[in-house]
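Case study.
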Amino acid sequence: MKLLQNPSSFRDPSGHVYKYNNRIIRVIKKYGKKRYEFIKENNLIEESIKNNFLIDTKEIENEFRNLKSENFCYFLEHERLDYISYPYEWGFYQLKEAALHHLKFQIFLLEKNAILIDSSAFNIQFKNNKPIFIDVLSIDEYIDGDYWNGHNQFLQQFLNPLLLSSLKGISFNDWYKGNLDGIKTTDLNNLLNLKDKLSFNVFFSVVLLSKLEKQNTANPKEALKKINKKRKLSKNSYRSLLLQLKKWIEKLHPLPKKTVWDSYSVANTYNEEQERGKIDIIKKFAEKHKPNLMADIGCNDGLYSFESLKSGCKKVVGFDIDTNAIDRAYKNSLKFDLNFLPLYFNATNPSGRLGWFENERESFIDRLNFDAVIALAFEHHLALANNVPLEDAVKWIIKIAKKGLIEYVSKKDETVKKMLSIKGDIFPDYNQENFEKSILLNGKIINKTKISNTRILYEFEKN
Amino acid sequence: MNKILITSFFFILFFNNKAFAYLDPGTGSIILQSILGAVAAGASYCMIYWQKIKNFFNRKKKNKND
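After joint prediction, the assembly is written out as follows.
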Protein backbone atom coordinates (compact mmCIF):
# COMPACT_ATOMS: atom_id res chain seq x y z
CA MET A 1 0.00 0.00 0.00
CA LYS A 2 1.35 3.38 -1.03
CA LEU A 3 0.95 6.80 0.53
CA LEU A 4 -1.33 8.78 -1.83
CA GLN A 5 -0.99 12.55 -1.57
CA ASN A 6 -4.27 14.43 -1.12
CA PRO A 7 -4.64 16.72 -4.17
CA SER A 8 -5.70 19.66 -1.95
CA SER A 9 -2.58 19.43 0.22
CA PHE A 10 0.10 21.29 -1.71
CA ARG A 11 0.17 24.90 -0.56
CA ASP A 12 2.36 24.61 2.51
CA PRO A 13 5.80 23.01 1.99
CA SER A 14 5.95 22.18 5.74
CA GLY A 15 4.02 18.96 5.26
CA HIS A 16 1.38 17.12 3.27
CA VAL A 17 -1.63 14.93 3.85
CA TYR A 18 -1.76 11.42 2.41
CA LYS A 19 -4.32 8.67 2.20
CA TYR A 20 -2.98 5.31 3.31
CA ASN A 21 -5.27 2.33 3.30
CA ASN A 22 -8.30 4.47 4.21
CA ARG A 23 -6.33 6.23 6.93
CA ILE A 24 -5.35 9.91 6.96
CA ILE A 25 -1.61 10.42 7.40
CA ARG A 26 0.21 13.77 7.58
CA VAL A 27 3.90 13.81 6.83
CA ILE A 28 5.99 16.60 8.34
CA LYS A 29 8.62 17.61 5.81
CA LYS A 30 12.05 19.09 6.41
CA TYR A 31 10.73 22.64 5.92
CA GLY A 32 8.14 22.15 8.66
CA LYS A 33 10.36 20.25 11.12
CA LYS A 34 11.09 23.30 13.29
CA ARG A 35 7.42 24.33 13.33
CA TYR A 36 6.25 20.85 14.29
CA GLU A 37 8.88 20.55 17.02
CA PHE A 38 7.64 23.84 18.49
CA ILE A 39 4.06 22.48 18.46
CA LYS A 40 5.23 19.22 20.04
CA GLU A 41 7.44 20.74 22.72
CA ASN A 42 4.60 23.00 23.86
CA ASN A 43 2.09 20.17 24.00
CA LEU A 44 -0.20 22.12 21.68
CA ILE A 45 -1.74 19.11 19.94
CA GLU A 46 -2.91 17.44 23.17
CA GLU A 47 -4.11 20.75 24.66
CA SER A 48 -6.02 21.68 21.48
CA ILE A 49 -7.66 18.26 21.26
CA LYS A 50 -8.59 18.37 24.95
CA ASN A 51 -10.32 21.71 24.41
CA ASN A 52 -12.23 20.45 21.32
CA PHE A 53 -10.38 22.71 18.89
CA LEU A 54 -8.37 20.17 16.91
CA ILE A 55 -9.24 16.88 15.28
CA ASP A 56 -7.78 13.77 16.96
CA THR A 57 -4.14 13.56 15.95
CA LYS A 58 -1.36 11.29 17.10
CA GLU A 59 2.25 10.83 16.12
CA ILE A 60 3.13 7.43 14.70
CA GLU A 61 6.61 6.40 15.64
CA ASN A 62 7.33 2.92 14.32
CA GLU A 63 4.98 2.03 11.52
CA PHE A 64 6.53 4.26 8.86
CA ARG A 65 10.13 4.21 9.99
CA ASN A 66 11.21 2.68 6.65
CA LEU A 67 9.90 5.80 4.90
CA LYS A 68 11.76 8.20 7.20
CA SER A 69 14.29 10.31 5.34
CA GLU A 70 15.84 13.74 5.46
CA ASN A 71 12.65 15.17 3.96
CA PHE A 72 10.10 12.86 5.66
CA CYS A 73 10.68 13.79 9.29
CA TYR A 74 7.54 12.89 11.27
CA PHE A 75 4.32 10.96 10.61
CA LEU A 76 0.97 11.89 12.16
CA GLU A 77 -2.36 10.14 11.91
CA HIS A 78 -5.63 12.09 11.96
CA GLU A 79 -9.06 10.81 12.79
CA ARG A 80 -10.95 10.07 9.58
CA LEU A 81 -14.21 11.99 9.15
CA ASP A 82 -17.24 10.34 7.57
CA TYR A 83 -18.03 13.22 5.28
CA ILE A 84 -15.99 16.18 4.06
CA SER A 85 -17.95 19.38 3.42
CA TYR A 86 -16.88 22.75 2.07
CA PRO A 87 -17.70 26.32 3.17
CA TYR A 88 -19.79 26.95 0.03
CA GLU A 89 -22.05 24.09 1.13
CA TRP A 90 -22.59 25.39 4.66
CA GLY A 91 -25.51 27.46 5.81
CA PHE A 92 -25.12 30.84 7.51
CA TYR A 93 -24.97 29.46 11.04
CA GLN A 94 -22.43 26.80 10.08
CA LEU A 95 -20.09 29.38 8.57
CA LYS A 96 -20.69 31.53 11.66
CA GLU A 97 -19.82 28.63 13.99
CA ALA A 98 -16.72 27.89 11.90
CA ALA A 99 -15.64 31.56 12.05
CA LEU A 100 -16.07 31.65 15.83
CA HIS A 101 -14.22 28.36 16.14
CA HIS A 102 -11.27 29.83 14.25
CA LEU A 103 -11.22 32.97 16.43
CA LYS A 104 -11.60 31.09 19.71
CA PHE A 105 -8.82 28.72 18.69
CA GLN A 106 -6.49 31.64 17.94
CA ILE A 107 -7.33 33.34 21.25
CA PHE A 108 -6.59 30.03 23.00
CA LEU A 109 -3.29 29.60 21.12
CA LEU A 110 -2.17 33.18 21.71
CA GLU A 111 -2.18 32.50 25.46
CA LYS A 112 0.33 29.77 24.73
CA ASN A 113 2.44 31.99 22.49
CA ALA A 114 1.21 30.39 19.30
CA ILE A 115 -0.85 31.59 16.34
CA LEU A 116 -2.54 30.26 13.22
CA ILE A 117 -0.55 31.22 10.14
CA ASP A 118 -3.54 31.28 7.80
CA SER A 119 -7.33 31.54 7.96
CA SER A 120 -8.55 29.15 5.30
CA ALA A 121 -12.16 28.18 5.98
CA PHE A 122 -11.33 24.84 4.33
CA ASN A 123 -9.20 24.05 7.41
CA ILE A 124 -12.42 23.59 9.33
CA GLN A 125 -14.65 20.56 8.99
CA PHE A 126 -17.79 19.45 10.79
CA LYS A 127 -17.52 16.46 13.07
CA ASN A 128 -21.16 15.50 13.50
CA ASN A 129 -22.57 18.98 13.83
CA LYS A 130 -19.68 20.87 15.47
CA PRO A 131 -16.75 22.61 13.78
CA ILE A 132 -13.28 21.14 14.21
CA PHE A 133 -9.88 22.36 13.01
CA ILE A 134 -8.03 19.87 10.81
CA ASP A 135 -4.72 21.44 9.79
CA VAL A 136 -2.22 21.05 12.61
CA LEU A 137 0.60 22.67 10.60
CA SER A 138 -1.29 25.98 10.56
CA ILE A 139 -0.12 26.37 14.15
CA ASP A 140 3.15 28.25 14.57
CA GLU A 141 5.09 30.16 17.20
CA TYR A 142 3.96 33.72 17.99
CA ILE A 143 6.83 36.16 17.70
CA ASP A 144 6.41 39.39 19.64
CA GLY A 145 5.13 42.13 17.32
CA ASP A 146 3.70 39.77 14.68
CA TYR A 147 0.82 40.96 12.55
CA TRP A 148 -2.11 38.62 11.97
CA ASN A 149 -1.13 37.31 8.55
CA GLY A 150 -4.41 35.55 8.02
CA HIS A 151 -6.50 38.67 8.73
CA ASN A 152 -7.34 39.43 5.10
CA GLN A 153 -8.09 35.77 4.38
CA PHE A 154 -10.33 35.61 7.45
CA LEU A 155 -12.35 38.55 6.18
CA GLN A 156 -12.72 37.08 2.68
CA GLN A 157 -13.49 33.53 3.70
CA PHE A 158 -15.56 34.07 6.84
CA LEU A 159 -16.66 37.63 7.59
CA ASN A 160 -17.57 38.95 4.12
CA PRO A 161 -19.80 35.99 3.17
CA LEU A 162 -21.59 36.36 6.53
CA LEU A 163 -22.03 40.10 5.97
CA LEU A 164 -23.39 39.53 2.46
CA SER A 165 -26.17 37.47 3.98
CA SER A 166 -26.58 39.55 7.12
CA LEU A 167 -26.64 43.01 5.51
CA LYS A 168 -27.99 42.28 2.04
CA GLY A 169 -29.99 39.05 2.41
CA ILE A 170 -27.94 37.38 -0.34
CA SER A 171 -26.83 33.81 0.34
CA PHE A 172 -23.08 33.51 -0.09
CA ASN A 173 -23.00 29.90 -1.34
CA ASP A 174 -23.08 30.27 -5.12
CA TRP A 175 -20.68 33.22 -5.07
CA TYR A 176 -18.32 31.30 -2.77
CA LYS A 177 -18.46 28.23 -5.02
CA GLY A 178 -17.48 30.50 -7.90
CA ASN A 179 -14.50 31.94 -6.03
CA LEU A 180 -12.92 29.62 -3.49
CA ASP A 181 -11.04 32.56 -1.91
CA GLY A 182 -14.37 33.83 -0.64
CA ILE A 183 -15.79 37.32 -1.18
CA LYS A 184 -13.47 40.24 -1.82
CA THR A 185 -13.81 43.19 0.53
CA THR A 186 -13.86 45.67 -2.38
CA ASP A 187 -16.73 43.73 -4.02
CA LEU A 188 -18.73 43.66 -0.79
CA ASN A 189 -18.09 47.37 -0.24
CA ASN A 190 -19.61 48.15 -3.64
CA LEU A 191 -22.87 46.52 -2.56
CA LEU A 192 -23.27 48.45 0.69
CA ASN A 193 -25.40 51.56 1.12
CA LEU A 194 -24.68 54.50 3.40
CA LYS A 195 -26.70 53.02 6.28
CA ASP A 196 -24.68 49.80 6.18
CA LYS A 197 -21.43 51.75 6.13
CA LEU A 198 -22.26 53.83 9.17
CA SER A 199 -21.71 50.95 11.57
CA PHE A 200 -18.34 51.16 13.38
CA ASN A 201 -17.39 47.58 12.53
CA VAL A 202 -18.48 47.74 8.89
CA PHE A 203 -16.69 51.06 8.46
CA PHE A 204 -13.34 49.70 9.63
CA SER A 205 -13.44 46.16 8.26
CA VAL A 206 -15.09 46.84 4.91
CA VAL A 207 -15.13 50.53 3.91
CA LEU A 208 -11.73 51.58 5.20
CA LEU A 209 -10.06 48.33 4.14
CA SER A 210 -11.47 48.69 0.59
CA LYS A 211 -10.15 52.24 0.45
CA LEU A 212 -6.70 51.08 1.60
CA GLU A 213 -6.71 48.19 -0.90
CA LYS A 214 -7.60 50.55 -3.72
CA GLN A 215 -4.92 53.03 -2.66
CA ASN A 216 -2.31 50.30 -2.45
CA THR A 217 -3.17 48.86 -5.84
CA ALA A 218 -2.88 52.33 -7.37
CA ASN A 219 0.35 53.11 -5.57
CA PRO A 220 2.12 49.94 -4.48
CA LYS A 221 5.48 51.62 -3.92
CA GLU A 222 3.96 53.97 -1.35
CA ALA A 223 2.13 51.05 0.29
CA LEU A 224 5.32 49.06 0.75
CA LYS A 225 7.02 52.10 2.22
CA LYS A 226 4.14 52.57 4.66
CA ILE A 227 4.22 48.94 5.73
CA ASN A 228 7.96 48.93 6.26
CA LYS A 229 7.60 51.99 8.48
CA LYS A 230 4.81 50.45 10.60
CA ARG A 231 5.53 49.65 14.19
CA LYS A 232 5.00 46.12 15.35
CA LEU A 233 1.56 45.02 16.53
CA SER A 234 1.43 44.39 20.26
CA LYS A 235 0.10 41.10 21.59
CA ASN A 236 -2.74 42.99 23.26
CA SER A 237 -3.73 44.58 19.97
CA TYR A 238 -3.57 41.19 18.23
CA ARG A 239 -5.85 39.74 20.91
CA SER A 240 -8.25 42.66 20.79
CA LEU A 241 -8.55 42.30 16.98
CA LEU A 242 -9.64 38.70 17.52
CA LEU A 243 -11.98 39.57 20.38
CA GLN A 244 -13.58 42.45 18.49
CA LEU A 245 -14.32 40.22 15.48
CA LYS A 246 -15.64 37.47 17.76
CA LYS A 247 -17.99 39.88 19.54
CA TRP A 248 -19.26 41.20 16.23
CA ILE A 249 -19.74 37.83 14.52
CA GLU A 250 -21.57 36.44 17.58
CA LYS A 251 -24.27 39.05 16.94
CA LEU A 252 -24.69 38.38 13.19
CA HIS A 253 -27.86 36.78 11.80
CA PRO A 254 -29.05 36.42 8.22
CA LEU A 255 -31.41 39.11 6.98
CA PRO A 256 -34.86 37.46 7.10
CA LYS A 257 -36.13 36.46 3.68
CA LYS A 258 -39.14 34.39 2.77
CA THR A 259 -38.49 31.27 0.70
CA VAL A 260 -40.84 28.74 -0.90
CA TRP A 261 -40.04 26.02 1.64
CA ASP A 262 -40.31 28.14 4.77
CA SER A 263 -43.34 26.35 6.10
CA TYR A 264 -43.06 23.06 4.24
CA SER A 265 -42.94 20.74 7.19
CA VAL A 266 -45.88 22.48 8.85
CA ALA A 267 -47.99 23.02 5.71
CA ASN A 268 -47.53 20.06 3.38
CA THR A 269 -50.30 18.46 1.41
CA TYR A 270 -51.11 15.42 3.53
CA ASN A 271 -52.92 14.99 6.78
CA GLU A 272 -51.59 14.01 10.18
CA GLU A 273 -52.45 10.34 9.86
CA GLN A 274 -50.73 10.05 6.49
CA GLU A 275 -47.71 11.90 7.89
CA ARG A 276 -47.55 9.43 10.81
CA GLY A 277 -47.69 6.56 8.34
CA LYS A 278 -44.81 8.02 6.37
CA ILE A 279 -42.70 8.52 9.51
CA ASP A 280 -43.43 4.90 10.54
CA ILE A 281 -41.99 3.56 7.29
CA ILE A 282 -38.89 5.77 7.63
CA LYS A 283 -38.35 4.60 11.22
CA LYS A 284 -38.72 0.94 10.24
CA PHE A 285 -36.22 1.43 7.42
CA ALA A 286 -33.68 2.93 9.86
CA GLU A 287 -34.33 0.18 12.41
CA LYS A 288 -33.88 -2.55 9.82
CA HIS A 289 -30.66 -1.30 8.21
CA LYS A 290 -29.10 0.84 10.95
CA PRO A 291 -27.15 2.87 8.38
CA ASN A 292 -23.83 4.26 9.53
CA LEU A 293 -24.08 7.26 7.20
CA MET A 294 -27.29 8.20 5.45
CA ALA A 295 -28.04 10.91 2.87
CA ASP A 296 -31.32 12.83 3.13
CA ILE A 297 -31.89 14.45 -0.27
CA GLY A 298 -34.25 17.41 0.03
CA CYS A 299 -33.96 17.30 3.83
CA ASN A 300 -35.80 20.58 4.52
CA ASP A 301 -35.59 21.26 8.28
CA GLY A 302 -34.50 17.69 9.01
CA LEU A 303 -37.68 16.10 10.41
CA TYR A 304 -37.20 12.71 8.67
CA SER A 305 -33.47 12.70 9.41
CA PHE A 306 -34.22 13.17 13.10
CA GLU A 307 -36.73 10.30 13.08
CA SER A 308 -34.12 8.09 11.37
CA LEU A 309 -31.45 9.04 13.91
CA LYS A 310 -33.80 8.16 16.76
CA SER A 311 -34.43 4.76 15.17
CA GLY A 312 -30.94 3.39 14.70
CA CYS A 313 -29.32 5.46 11.97
CA LYS A 314 -25.94 6.76 13.21
CA LYS A 315 -25.35 9.85 11.14
CA VAL A 316 -27.18 11.81 8.45
CA VAL A 317 -25.94 14.36 5.93
CA GLY A 318 -28.90 16.37 4.65
CA PHE A 319 -28.99 18.22 1.34
CA ASP A 320 -31.35 21.03 0.43
CA ILE A 321 -31.49 23.95 -1.97
CA ASP A 322 -33.21 26.24 0.52
CA THR A 323 -30.71 28.10 2.72
CA ASN A 324 -33.42 29.08 5.24
CA ALA A 325 -34.28 25.38 5.66
CA ILE A 326 -30.57 24.59 6.12
CA ASP A 327 -30.31 27.23 8.85
CA ARG A 328 -33.36 25.86 10.66
CA ALA A 329 -32.12 22.29 10.25
CA TYR A 330 -28.69 23.16 11.65
CA LYS A 331 -30.21 24.98 14.63
CA ASN A 332 -32.39 21.91 15.33
CA SER A 333 -29.39 19.65 15.00
CA LEU A 334 -27.55 21.66 17.66
CA LYS A 335 -30.63 22.00 19.88
CA PHE A 336 -31.30 18.26 19.98
CA ASP A 337 -27.60 17.37 19.73
CA LEU A 338 -28.03 15.05 16.77
CA ASN A 339 -25.43 13.70 14.35
CA PHE A 340 -27.01 15.61 11.52
CA LEU A 341 -25.17 17.84 9.09
CA PRO A 342 -27.42 19.76 6.68
CA LEU A 343 -25.75 21.21 3.57
CA TYR A 344 -26.75 23.59 0.79
CA PHE A 345 -27.19 21.62 -2.41
CA ASN A 346 -28.64 22.24 -5.83
CA ALA A 347 -29.26 18.80 -7.34
CA THR A 348 -29.26 20.14 -10.90
CA ASN A 349 -25.94 21.88 -10.29
CA PRO A 350 -24.16 19.97 -7.51
CA SER A 351 -20.66 20.85 -6.28
CA GLY A 352 -18.22 19.72 -8.95
CA ARG A 353 -14.48 19.21 -8.78
CA LEU A 354 -13.07 22.64 -8.09
CA GLY A 355 -9.81 24.45 -7.47
CA TRP A 356 -6.32 23.84 -8.79
CA PHE A 357 -6.18 21.21 -11.53
CA GLU A 358 -9.93 20.76 -10.94
CA ASN A 359 -8.93 18.37 -8.24
CA GLU A 360 -8.58 20.35 -5.04
CA ARG A 361 -12.19 20.09 -3.83
CA GLU A 362 -14.04 16.87 -4.48
CA SER A 363 -17.38 16.72 -6.24
CA PHE A 364 -20.61 15.44 -4.71
CA ILE A 365 -20.22 12.16 -6.65
CA ASP A 366 -16.56 11.78 -5.55
CA ARG A 367 -17.63 12.01 -1.93
CA LEU A 368 -20.44 9.42 -2.07
CA ASN A 369 -19.89 7.33 1.00
CA PHE A 370 -23.45 6.66 2.10
CA ASP A 371 -24.89 3.30 2.98
CA ALA A 372 -28.47 4.53 2.65
CA VAL A 373 -30.41 7.37 1.05
CA ILE A 374 -33.87 8.84 1.56
CA ALA A 375 -35.39 11.11 -1.08
CA LEU A 376 -38.81 12.08 0.19
CA ALA A 377 -41.09 14.36 -1.82
CA PHE A 378 -38.08 15.09 -3.97
CA GLU A 379 -38.06 13.28 -7.34
CA HIS A 380 -40.91 15.39 -8.77
CA HIS A 381 -38.80 18.52 -8.26
CA LEU A 382 -36.15 17.03 -10.51
CA ALA A 383 -38.52 15.48 -13.03
CA LEU A 384 -41.28 18.10 -13.20
CA ALA A 385 -39.84 21.40 -11.94
CA ASN A 386 -36.43 20.95 -13.59
CA ASN A 387 -37.41 18.80 -16.59
CA VAL A 388 -34.91 16.00 -15.78
CA PRO A 389 -36.18 12.83 -17.54
CA LEU A 390 -37.85 10.60 -14.91
CA GLU A 391 -35.53 7.69 -15.69
CA ASP A 392 -32.43 9.87 -15.11
CA ALA A 393 -33.84 11.36 -11.90
CA VAL A 394 -34.42 7.88 -10.42
CA LYS A 395 -31.04 6.62 -11.67
CA TRP A 396 -29.29 9.57 -9.98
CA ILE A 397 -31.00 8.97 -6.62
CA ILE A 398 -30.17 5.25 -6.71
CA LYS A 399 -26.52 6.04 -7.50
CA ILE A 400 -26.20 7.74 -4.07
CA ALA A 401 -26.46 4.55 -1.98
CA LYS A 402 -27.08 0.82 -2.12
CA LYS A 403 -30.47 1.04 -0.51
CA GLY A 404 -33.01 3.67 0.24
CA LEU A 405 -36.49 5.13 0.18
CA ILE A 406 -37.92 7.18 -2.67
CA GLU A 407 -41.31 8.84 -2.53
CA TYR A 408 -43.24 8.92 -5.79
CA VAL A 409 -45.64 11.85 -6.22
CA SER A 410 -48.30 11.48 -8.90
CA LYS A 411 -49.57 14.18 -11.26
CA LYS A 412 -52.86 14.24 -9.34
CA ASP A 413 -51.14 15.59 -6.21
CA GLU A 414 -52.08 19.17 -5.27
CA THR A 415 -48.46 20.38 -5.23
CA VAL A 416 -47.81 18.87 -8.67
CA LYS A 417 -51.02 20.41 -10.03
CA LYS A 418 -49.76 23.81 -8.85
CA MET A 419 -46.34 23.18 -10.37
CA LEU A 420 -47.83 22.36 -13.74
CA SER A 421 -50.61 24.96 -13.74
CA ILE A 422 -48.52 27.61 -15.48
CA LYS A 423 -45.92 25.44 -17.15
CA GLY A 424 -48.46 23.02 -18.57
CA ASP A 425 -48.17 19.24 -18.56
CA ILE A 426 -45.26 18.62 -20.90
CA PHE A 427 -44.41 15.27 -19.28
CA PRO A 428 -46.31 12.48 -21.04
CA ASP A 429 -43.92 9.82 -19.66
CA TYR A 430 -44.28 10.81 -16.01
CA ASN A 431 -46.35 8.05 -14.40
CA GLN A 432 -46.13 5.34 -11.75
CA GLU A 433 -45.47 2.57 -14.26
CA ASN A 434 -42.45 4.36 -15.71
CA PHE A 435 -41.26 5.26 -12.23
CA GLU A 436 -41.22 1.59 -11.23
CA LYS A 437 -39.54 0.62 -14.52
CA SER A 438 -36.83 3.20 -13.78
CA ILE A 439 -36.13 1.61 -10.38
CA LEU A 440 -36.01 -1.85 -11.95
CA LEU A 441 -33.41 -0.67 -14.47
CA ASN A 442 -31.03 -0.02 -11.55
CA GLY A 443 -32.13 -2.39 -8.83
CA LYS A 444 -35.13 -4.02 -7.23
CA ILE A 445 -38.20 -2.87 -5.34
CA ILE A 446 -38.17 -4.28 -1.80
CA ASN A 447 -41.32 -2.61 -0.50
CA LYS A 448 -44.01 -0.32 -1.75
CA THR A 449 -46.41 1.51 0.59
CA LYS A 450 -49.20 3.89 -0.31
CA ILE A 451 -49.09 6.88 2.04
CA SER A 452 -51.89 8.85 0.38
CA ASN A 453 -53.95 8.71 -2.83
CA THR A 454 -51.21 10.54 -4.69
CA ARG A 455 -48.02 9.43 -2.92
CA ILE A 456 -46.24 6.07 -2.71
CA LEU A 457 -43.09 5.24 -0.78
CA TYR A 458 -40.70 2.74 -2.41
CA GLU A 459 -37.87 0.91 -0.72
CA PHE A 460 -35.22 -0.08 -3.25
CA GLU A 461 -31.98 -2.00 -3.32
CA LYS A 462 -29.36 -1.32 -5.97
CA ASN A 463 -28.14 -4.16 -8.20
CA MET B 1 13.31 66.65 -27.21
CA ASN B 2 10.54 67.44 -24.79
CA LYS B 3 8.38 64.76 -26.36
CA ILE B 4 11.10 62.16 -25.83
CA LEU B 5 11.48 63.20 -22.21
CA ILE B 6 7.75 62.97 -21.55
CA THR B 7 7.49 59.60 -23.32
CA SER B 8 10.40 58.12 -21.38
CA PHE B 9 9.01 59.54 -18.13
CA PHE B 10 5.69 57.76 -18.75
CA PHE B 11 7.54 54.64 -19.83
CA ILE B 12 9.53 54.53 -16.60
CA LEU B 13 6.42 55.22 -14.55
CA PHE B 14 4.46 52.49 -16.32
CA PHE B 15 7.35 50.05 -16.03
CA ASN B 16 7.82 50.72 -12.33
CA ASN B 17 4.17 50.15 -11.60
CA LYS B 18 4.19 46.90 -13.49
CA ALA B 19 7.02 45.57 -11.36
CA PHE B 20 4.76 46.00 -8.33
CA ALA B 21 1.61 44.72 -9.97
CA TYR B 22 1.92 41.43 -8.10
CA LEU B 23 1.84 43.02 -4.66
CA ASP B 24 0.01 40.86 -2.16
CA PRO B 25 -3.50 42.28 -1.73
CA GLY B 26 -3.14 41.75 2.02
CA THR B 27 -1.11 44.94 2.40
CA GLY B 28 -4.28 46.92 3.15
CA SER B 29 -5.04 44.49 5.94
CA ILE B 30 -1.67 45.13 7.61
CA ILE B 31 -2.20 48.90 7.54
CA LEU B 32 -5.74 48.38 8.85
CA GLN B 33 -4.46 46.16 11.67
CA SER B 34 -2.09 48.87 12.82
CA ILE B 35 -4.94 51.39 12.78
CA LEU B 36 -7.32 49.02 14.61
CA GLY B 37 -4.53 48.06 16.99
CA ALA B 38 -4.03 51.72 17.86
CA VAL B 39 -7.80 52.24 18.23
CA ALA B 40 -8.05 49.20 20.51
CA ALA B 41 -5.04 50.28 22.55
CA GLY B 42 -6.48 53.81 22.81
CA ALA B 43 -9.85 52.42 23.84
CA SER B 44 -8.40 50.24 26.58
CA TYR B 45 -6.30 53.23 27.78
CA CYS B 46 -9.46 55.33 27.96
CA MET B 47 -11.28 52.48 29.72
CA ILE B 48 -8.65 52.43 32.49
CA TYR B 49 -9.14 56.17 33.06
CA TRP B 50 -12.91 55.91 32.77
CA GLN B 51 -12.80 53.16 35.41
CA LYS B 52 -10.65 55.39 37.65
CA ILE B 53 -13.11 58.28 37.29
CA LYS B 54 -16.02 55.96 38.01
CA ASN B 55 -14.24 54.53 41.03
CA PHE B 56 -13.51 58.04 42.30
CA PHE B 57 -17.17 59.04 42.16
CA ASN B 58 -18.35 55.71 43.51
CA ARG B 59 -16.02 56.11 46.48
CA LYS B 60 -17.35 59.62 47.07
CA LYS B 61 -20.91 58.33 46.94
CA LYS B 62 -20.03 55.47 49.26
CA ASN B 63 -18.38 57.85 51.71
CA LYS B 64 -21.52 60.00 51.71
CA ASN B 65 -23.71 56.97 52.36
CA ASP B 66 -21.46 55.93 55.24
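Observations recorded in class. Confidence is low (pLDDT under 50) at residues 7-23 of chain B. The radius of gyration of chain B is 28 Å. We will return to this complex in the next lecture.
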